[in-house]
Design goal:
By secondary structure, this protein is of the alpha/beta class. It contains ten helices and ten strands.
Length: about 375
């Protein structure tokens, strides 16, 4: 296997557009940062698109250039794994609105010559998918063998067969939902308000002096991170254990281990993510309602597709609980779409899909190989 197959190729393309947006208007040009792994076969039938979650990026299986850490899904994508560059041509693109090279609030507005900031247009999950389709057009890929994603990535994978029913053959949706609940929206609003309350936010115009609203973004990340975990997992890992210092030294420092952990998560996040992008992407997730996009009936979203579906949920995921996946399965059944569904056991809550999950890998591997055997 070549180095390109193992480590991926980092790419950046500027497409002329225009990209028509759900909110009205259009974006042009459209910048997309992406990585590819493996080789496209002769008939261009082995392409798999990986869709990332809210704070993810295109570095799905290669070293992150800012953090030096391994890719965020090296447990699923790589040699000998379910999504394998020896068998598949793998594409992962940074979503529209993000901050790792694709068009977003930090991108230079060609009209003004300065970053868009809050002038960047409001975007939706379907807009992200349309941008990905533009990338596939650029790569000469008419149809995906499969699209795979978890969490917000799962929202994109659901939107793919609904938006481009003829362009995808298989869909893997992990720990996701067809629309945000009021509770989901509430948690996101807490994070957004934390960012906008930071004095350094200044209406989003903070790029020129390099003083971003880091404190607000850190709090937003801390609040969101709690929703990615489970109570059982937090109790097992931290409980009510105090830091290794004088337990009688009470105050507002990080007395408990869980406090220190969350603060570390928040501060490390500000080194690699943009606050305005966080505002835009969380809003896109909150707007997502696949049924509403198709006349109020979720089954309508899948009536035109001939794709095969595989859905997985985790029993301790309270952010997108199993009931959300079951609702999607029922809609797929009503639409006559072939679907398999499994609820997996894990103590790790929503984040389980990013961690060691042998049973998840076994199911996805079997699902993909069944499609290859056709």
């Amino acid at each position: 296997m070549s180095d390109d197959q193992r480590f991926g190729l980092a790419r950046h393309v500027i497409l002329p557009g225009p990209l028509k947006l759900d909110g009205g208007g259009a974006l042009a040009p459209v910048e997309i940062a992406y990585e590819t792994y493996g080789t496209l076969n002769a008939d261009r039938s082995n392409a798999i698109l990986i869709c990332h979650a809210l704070t993810g990026d295109q570095h799905v299986a290669s070293t992150h250039p800012m953090t030096g850490k391994s890719g965020w899904w090296t447990r699923l994508v790589g040699a000998g794994l379910p999504v394998d560059p020896a068998r598949h041509f793998i594409i992962c693109a940074n979503v529209l609105g993000s901050c790792m090279g694709s068009s977003g609030p930090g991108t230079i507005d060609p009209v003004t010559g300065s970053p868009y900031a809050m002038r960047f247009p409001v975007i939706t999950i379907r807009d992200m998918v349309r941008a990905q389709a533009m990338l596939l057009d650029h790569l000469g890929i008419e149809r995906l063998f499969a699209v795979v994603g978890g969490s917000m990535g799962g929202m994109q994978t659901l939107s793919w067969p609904a938006t481009f029913p003829e362009r995808v053959g298989a869909v893997v949706v992990i720990a996701s939902t067809a629309r945000h609940s009021a509770q989901n929206i509430a948690f996101h609003e807490v994070g957004r308000q934390a960012i906008m309350a930071d004095p350094n936010w200044r209406g989003g115009a903070y790029y020129a002096d390099g003083a971003p609203p880091a404190a607000g973004l850190a709090v937003a990340r801390m609040a969101a991170h709690i929703t990615y975990l489970s109570e059982a997992g937090l109790t097992e890992k931290f409980g009510r254990r105090l830091q290794a210092r004088d337990a009688k030294s009470f105050g507002f420092d990080a007395d408990f281990q869980i406090e220190s952990y969350l603060r570390h998560q928040g501060l490390s996040f500000t080194d690699r993510f943009d606050a305005n992008s966080y505002l835009y992407i969380t809003r896109a997730m909150d707007y997502f309602d696949l049924a509403e996009e198709h006349g109020g009936t979720l089954a309508n979203a899948f009536k035109a597709t001939r794709a095969r579906f595989c859905l997985l949920s985790f029993d301790t995921d309270w952010l997108y609980p199993t009931a959300e996946s079951r609702a999607i399965v029922h809609a797929l059944n009503a639409a006559g779409a072939p679907v398999s569904f499994v609820e997996l056991k894990s103590p790790f809550g929503h984040d389980a899909f990013l961690l060691e999950a042998p049973e998840m890998n076994r199911i996805i591997d079997g699902f993909l190989r069944a499609g290859e055997a056709r």
